[in-house]
């Protein structure tokens, strides 16, 4: 059974460098209320590690990640 998440916000980071993604994500998460989900779309391999660490530090939850070729979709729930 596959779970589907309906994001409250979608952040397309495919044109963003790995370092910038977490900076912009921080600002996007500030707009959300607790429990809302943001979908982050990225084609940058370095985002995977940096994003996981950022989520742990800020105590958010990665509810899912889907990979389709070079594109990854991250579903992050705000704490």
Structure explained in plain terms:
The protein is of the alpha+beta class and 79 residues long. It has one domain (9-77): TusA-like domain (Translation Initiation Factor IF3), CATH 3.30.110.40. 35% of the residues lie in helices and 32% in strands. It has helices at 18-31, 45-58; strands at 9-12, 37-42, 61-68, 71-77. It has a 4-stranded mixed β-sheet with strand order 1-2-4-3, with helices on one face. Helix 1 packs parallel to helix 2. The longest helix has 14 residues, at 18-31. The N and C termini lie far apart (25 Å). The model has no long low-confidence stretch (mean pLDDT 91).
Sheet of most strands:
4 strands, mixed
- Helix vs. strand class: alpha+beta
| Strand order in the sheet with the most strands | 1-2-4-3
CATH topology: Translation Initiation Factor IF3
Provide the CATH superfamily.
Answer: TusA-like domain
Regarding CATH, which class?
A: Alpha Beta
Element string (H = helix, E = strand)? EHEHEE
Backbone CA Rg: 12 Å
Number of strands: 4
**On the 0-100 scale, what is the average pLDDT?**
91
Give the % helix: 25-40%
CATH architecture assignment: 2-Layer Sandwich
Number of helices: 2
- Share of residues in strands: 25-35%
N-to-C terminal Cα separation, in Å?
25 Å
- Tally of separate domains: 1
């Amino acid at each position: 059974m596959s779970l589907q998440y309906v994001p409250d916000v979608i952040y397309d980071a495919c044109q963003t460098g790995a370092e910038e993604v977490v900076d912009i994500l921080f600002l996007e998460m500030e707009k959300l209320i607790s429990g809302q989900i943001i979908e982050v779309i990225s084609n940058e391999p370095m985002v995977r590690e940096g994003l996981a660490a950022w989520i742990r530090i800020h105590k958010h939850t990665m509810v899912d990640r889907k990979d389709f070729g070079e594109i990854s979709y991250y579903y992050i729930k705000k704490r």
